[in-house]
């Protein structure tokens, strides 16, 4: 199966980008961006710092002009539309709440520009502040708010305009870990309540995994992979994607005995079979395989025999308990190291350093990476 | 009723210790001289001699004198237009430096004009604006005028041109540091919420840079309105400002008490001007810290 999701006709797309490119002078910050933002989803731009996430978001908001390609809002060209005319609002990374106004007037800012009557403004601002649980702080000044509170006000201010699309640029990056997890579930609740489409920028894979309907994984200004969190986690298409999301064992391998559905891969961890194979594999082709540590099981080598395929004999060289988990590192005869992760038992660990073990993993656990 | 010396806890003591240098500085350099001057203004003096006799005569004489009112008008006129032009001219430059360029070349070029002395610059403007100066001789050679333009020199215009040249570096610096606080994401947030360029300027930039804008305006206004050197050298008959009258009382006539009274009248005018500016900014909803909604009774006290 292919994980490169193409525009799906049965779900309306709000924003549609084709062949989008952005150059700053001679530096290309974005290239070949083909992407649809679908109605009602939480779409996350994920990638390392500097890969172009903010730039892509600013193009959607109207603060940057793409140097090539098309950008459409419900089928209409958006490139000539200034930011204030787009039915899109943004939560800025540093919130950008106006320090000369109080919480109420910050949220009312956009509504006043539309010359709404006071009663209607009061109703909407009240509702927004209630939604983000800041209704008791309407008269506070901005400098009297904590980071998490500023975050909520910024969200209320952006949503008060009832945008068709809400952009959030690393909104949780400035918060500490505990508030961050709480805000993540708050964001999800607010998205459900309002039904607003979210485009969310983050460099944090956990945030992306928890929040997203779909993830756009970006690297060096290109889209590396686009899919649901599960698709990206279990079926990465490239070395970059496999390494960026979660821990994994990466092993070089070669395609053997036919390139069809029953191709066998031969590599440093012996022979293996994969249940999902990329299309167009050729006999003898060099690839990488990715096997997640939690899919590798360990058992005492004195019990049973070593598996012929999707398994290996190894010796435990490191045992690392991490809270609720244990990570074992095991060395194969050829020196290759593989990690295995299990839930930590409440009593003594069943395996010891230096012990010979059988490693085993399923066909579904093997992801074949051609790039 | 018994009065006891207040006792301070440790935090209050350290607060007092930190505030002390500022307080001492203010007392030495501001409160004491002002108090001395205030006392003088209610005494009598002649030929540099002061007689401690309590009187209102200095104020009455000043306020009953048409020449004093004219000099006040000259000074306020010069100060107001100098402030308007200095702020208006330096604002776009400050904007350009703050948002459009990474280089500080323009800033240094403007600051470089400080390297020449005040008097040198006044005489430079005399040669430019004079009857046989640069502008008049050029215009006459081009045949655009037959007679030299006489309003260029020895007029309030000449004084204003010179003072603007003098104060633009100050206003530029003050406005620039104010704009540096208005990060671009505030401007973008305003646009994002639907503000046009003009609306984001009035509703976000001006209130956020309020201190810099009002501060540089008042700073220039007060210094220019109180100046007596430029008006004397370039103002001709229109150059008789209250500042000049005050300086004459202290340096030539020797009537310190009358000079002090004039100075306090000028101070009153400046305070009134500040009140007018601040009040009109408030009415125009351009000041920070205003609430635009009926303040609900404090719900926030948790
Ligand atoms: N205005 C700009 N001028 C020049 N280069 C820029 C500008 N904005 C962004 N870039 C460059 O584009 C790249 C992508 O930036 P950005 O979109 O901010 O990345 P991210 O948000 O993924 O960290 C970076 O290398 C950055 O230096
Ligand atoms: Mg960024």
Automatic annotation (TrEMBL), chain A:
Presence of the UniProt keyword Plastid in the record: no
GO biological process, one term: putrescine transport
Matches recorded under SMART domains: AAA
Top-level taxon in the UniProt lineage: Bacteria
Domain named ABC transporter: residues: 15-245
Keywords: ATP-binding, Nucleotide-binding, Transport
InterPro entries according to UniProt: AAA+_ATPase, ABC_SmlMolc_Importer, ABC_transporter-like_ATP-bd, ABC_transporter-like_CS, Mo/tungstate-bd_C_term_dom, P-loop_NTPase, Transp-assoc_OB_typ2
One of the record's GO cellular component terms: ATP-binding cassette (ABC) transporter complex
Record's keyword annotation contains Transport: yes
Protein name: ABC transporter ATP-binding protein
TrEMBL record, chain B:
InterPro entries cross-referenced by the UniProt entry: MetI-like, MetI-like_sf
Localization, UniProt: Cell membrane
Residue span(s) of domain ABC transmembrane type-1: 72-277
GO biological process entries: transmembrane transport
Alphabetical keyword list: Cell membrane, Membrane, Transmembrane, Transmembrane helix, Transport
Membrane as UniProt keyword: yes
Signal peptide feature range: none
GO cellular component terms listed in the entry, alphabetical order: plasma membrane
Membrane association type: Multi-pass membrane protein
SUPFAM superfamilies: MetI-like
Endoplasmic reticulum recorded as keyword: no
Stretches that traverse the bilayer: 16-43, 76-98, 105-124, 158-179, 200-225, 256-277
Domain of life: Bacteria
Family classification: Belongs to the binding-protein-dependent transport system permease family. CysTW subfamily.
Name of the featured protein: ABC transporter permease
């Amino acid at each position: 199966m292919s994980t490169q999701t193409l525009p799906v006709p049965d779900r309306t797309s709000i924003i549609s980008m084709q062949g989008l490119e952005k150059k700053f002078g001679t530096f290309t910050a974005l290239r070949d961006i083909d992407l649809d933002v679908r109605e009602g989803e939480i779409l996350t731009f994920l990638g390392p710092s500097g890969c172009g996430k903010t730039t892509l978001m600013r193009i959607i908001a109207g603060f940057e002009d793409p140097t090539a390609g098309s950008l459409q809002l419900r089928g209409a060209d958006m490139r000539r539309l200034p930011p204030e005319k787009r039915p899109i609002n943004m939560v800025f990374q540093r919130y950008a709440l106006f320090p000369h106004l109080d919480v109420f007037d910050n949220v009312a800012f956009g509504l006043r520009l539309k010359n709404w009557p006071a009663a209607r403004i009061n109703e909407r601002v009240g509702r927004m502040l209630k939604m983000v649980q800041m209704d008791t702080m309407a008269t506070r000044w901005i400098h009297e708010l904590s980071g998490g509170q500023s975050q909520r006000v910024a969200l209320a201010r952006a949503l008060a305009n009832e945008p068709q699309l809400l952009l959030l640029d690393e909104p949780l990056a400035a918060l500490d870990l505990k508030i961050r997890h709480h805000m993540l579930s708050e964001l999800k609740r607010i998205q459900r309540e309002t039904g607003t489409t979210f485009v969310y920028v983050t460099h944090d894979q956990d945030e992306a995994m928890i929040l997203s309907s779909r993830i756009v994984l970006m690297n060096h200004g290109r889209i590396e992979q686009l899919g649901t969190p599960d698709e990206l986690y279990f079926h990465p298409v490239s070395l970059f994607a496999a390494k960026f999301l979660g821990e994994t064992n990466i092993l070089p391998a070669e395609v053997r005995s036919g390139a069809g559905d029953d191709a066998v891969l031969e590599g440093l961890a012996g022979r293996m079979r994969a249940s999902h194979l990329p299309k167009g594999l050729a006999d003898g082709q060099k690839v990488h395989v990715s096997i997640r540590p939690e899919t590798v099981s360990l058992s005492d080598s004195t019990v049973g025999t070593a598996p012929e395929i999707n398994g290996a004999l190894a010796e435990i060289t490191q045992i690392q308990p991490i809270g609720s988990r244990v990570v074992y590192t095991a060395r194969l005869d050829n020196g290759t190291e593989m990690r295995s992760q299990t839930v930590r038992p409440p009593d003594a660990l069943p395996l010891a350093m230096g012990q010979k073990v059988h490693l085993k993993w399923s066909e579904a656990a093997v992801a074949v990476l051609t790039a | 009723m018994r009065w006891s010396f207040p006792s301070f806890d440790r935090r209050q003591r350290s607060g007092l210790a930190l505030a002390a240098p500022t307080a001492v500085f203010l007392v030495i350099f501001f409160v004491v001289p002002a108090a001395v001057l205030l006392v003088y203004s209610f005494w009598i003096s002649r030929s540099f001699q002061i007689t401690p006799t309590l009187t209102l005569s200095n104020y009455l004489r000043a306020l009953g004198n048409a020449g004093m009112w004219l000099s006040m008008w000259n000074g306020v006129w010069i100060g107001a237009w100098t402030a308007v032009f200095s702020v208006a001219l330096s604002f776009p430059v400050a904007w350009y430096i703050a948002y459009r360029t990474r280089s500080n070349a323009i800033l240094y070029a403007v600051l470089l004009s400080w390297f020449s002395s005040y008097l040198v610059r006044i005489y430079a403007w005399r040669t430019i604006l004079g009857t046989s100066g640069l502008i008049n001789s050029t215009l006459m050679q081009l045949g655009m005028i037959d007679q030299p333009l006489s309003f260029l020199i020895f007029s309030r215009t000449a004084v204003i041109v010179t003072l603007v040249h003098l104060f633009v570096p100050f206003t530029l610096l003050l406005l620039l540091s104010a704009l540096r606080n208005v990060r671009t994401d505030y401007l973008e947030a305003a646009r994002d919420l639907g503000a046009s360029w003009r609306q984001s300027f009035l509703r976000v930039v001006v209130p956020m840079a309020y201190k810099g804008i009002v501060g540089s305006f008042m700073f220039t206004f007060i210094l220019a309105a109180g100046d007596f050197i430029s008006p004397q050298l370039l103002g001709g008959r229109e150059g008789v400002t209250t500042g000049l009258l005050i300086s004459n009382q202290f340096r030539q006539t020797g009537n310190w008490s009358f000079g002090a009274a004039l100075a306090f009248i000028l101070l009153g005018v400046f305070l009134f001007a500040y009140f007018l500016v601040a009040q009109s900014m408030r009415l125009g909803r351009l000041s920070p810290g205003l609430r635009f909604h009926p303040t609900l009774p404090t719900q926030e006290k948790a």
